[in-house]
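Ligand-bound model needed. iron/sulfur cluster.
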Amino acid sequence: MQVWNQERAVTIVQQLKELPGALLPILHALQEEFGYVDHSVVPAIADALNISKAEVHGTISFYHDFRHAPPGQHILKMCRAEACQSMGCDAVIEHVENRLGAKLGETTADGNFTLDAVYCLGNCALSPAAMLDGKPYGRVSTQVADFLIDDATRRGGQRG
Amino acid sequence: MSVKIFIPCDMAALSVGADAVAKAVEREIQERRLDAVVVRNGSRGMFWLEPLLEVETPKGRVAYGPMTPDAVPSLFEAGLLDGKQHALCLGLTEEIPYLKNQERLTFARCGIVDPLSLSDYISRDGYKGLQNALKMSAEKIVEEVTNSGLRGRGGAGFPTGIKWNTVLKAQGSQKYIVCNADEGDSGTFADRMIMEGDPFVLIEGMTIAGFAVGATQGYIYCRSEYPHAVKTLRRAISIAYENGYLGDNAAGSGKTFDLEVRMGAGAYICGEETSLLESLEGRRGQIRPKPPLPAIEGLFGKPTVVNNVISLATVPIILDKGADHYKNFGMGRSRGTLTIQLAGNIKYGGLVEKAFGLTLRQAIYDFGGGTATGKNLRAVQVGGPLGAYFPEKLLDTPLDYEAFAAKKGLVGHGGVVVFDETVNLAKQARFAMEFCAEESCGKCTPCRIGSTRGVETIDRIIKNEDRTKNLEVLNDLCEVMLDGSLCALGGLTPYPVLSAVEHFPEDFHGTTA
Ligand SMILES: Cc1cc2nc3c(=O)[nH]c(=O)nc-3n(C[C@H](O)[C@H](O)[C@H](O)COP(=O)(O)O)c2cc1C
Ligand code: SF4
Ligand code: FES
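Prediction:
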């Protein structure tokens, strides 16, 4: 993951602007590259797509996926939808929140973890489900969650 | 020829360690210098057995599971390549009752083939439906789909053929096929399994749809929570292009069909078709009022077919085996098969493709084996977050659109989420309102404000503040949402809420906790 680079960001916008309905692909590409969408890129997007800055802002904020600030080194997404509830995800999430000292939607003070809620990962027969740095996990008990956090902490460095 | 060993690359299988098992198997093959290869297949949909390993033998595939990397060496010692006995051996895969008792039409190949092998696909009846379609007029293809009785599997159950006919008849220089792969309902994973396990069947279905209505461009709108599906689809699409099945003169038809995957961005509402179209066009996913129907003015204002993954992936077998073959499965006005997804607190969770008409009880007990925790079953939510909570006494309801509607329930996309006796239905009702508030597109007041008020009201009921009065308030709120919402998010959220109150009153009136 790279730190925000305005020049590179504008290049990405230019590369994708001709796609029909280019806004989401552009935002995804920016987030893929930098981990978030910096608000400084909004005028360039508005200009490239010939829409208002308000429209770009409105779209970014409508979707849960797009971050406004760089995430932690590791991103842990925990499902809190019904099937996972039936297998006790709430208790696991609470445990993880306490352990990390961060609530769902927050990043730990040391910048190691961003904890996110998701509503279903399509792994509802192996609930509770989670995803750590893009890798799926099933039957995530508090012990499994601890293991995942320990392991990621030990690996440190870049996610992936 | 090398012996084939199958280990799924399905996301659910990966989530319980399929990659580590595959690595251990590769290592054994190398160390023992065996003539065997590992094939990464999709999942058979028996998730309690994942990672499931299968080996091809002259008698058929033999299954072992649930596998761990540690168990791999002993499997080879026991004679894996000849399908020999082992503590984890499950016998011939096709004879496992869970699979044997299904009627797999849409999922005929899923878990059997290498998802990215076009030759696997073709050798197992792939592209036969399209070959037949190429000999038919557009009208005839639409007629065949109409006659099959196929109804949309995304939730609303609208007849697919009738939708296609509207798009076929609509005037437009450009038409589109949009596949709804937003699969946001909790308890569902059928779309994901097909996209990861048999992506060519979706590509074929969309191509047939394109020829049937005169559309030259298709989009698959896949939720971002499914990165594995997105990756598999993109690779399958390039393979289809390289082999002449997409693009100009697609499949030698003389016609063009182009296809692209687009990713959603974590908004449940974008599963609603007009919100999805807004999102595809690059805007906030706000609902468009209907009319105009997307079939008349859809993507970029052009006539557009919007269909669920399973609807489109079922089209090839209809065109291959004929409308009558498909129609002969099912009950009443629900024809063909339903892909039931057994999820949540269930012993044998997974995918059960079965003719419409199986009762909920049969699905949960005969296939699912009851709860995973072994405690008593207390509630079942069918049809995702907008589906009603059913108590034990409604379990004999057959899985059929009309039968469920008669019980104020929803078959929806076929997800079945089981809860044991520890569930608190007031908490579930609160979640339904909270989810609606979180995911509301904001266009209409009953949904946007009503759901937030709903959460507050249920909180008061839980805290035993003025229970009787607040239950009335909740009822009124639900009524306003039912009547005054523009789309089914606000319009159906009252179903889980009111069903919880109706069937589980003790959780709302009960003694203070
Ligand atoms: C809030 C809401 C969410 C929906 N989510 C989905 C979804 O995730 N997938 C889907 O196929 N249909 C979903 N639908 C139904 C679609 O609006 C539409 O009916 C469907 O895509 C049509 O395809 P079909 O006829 O093949 O089912 C949703 C509807 C609503 C109101
Ligand atoms: S009911 Fe809710 S989601 Fe649907 S249009 Fe109204 S505000 Fe939007
Ligand atoms: S509800 Fe958690 S993975 Fe589906």
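The first strand of chain A starts at residue 74 and ends at 79.
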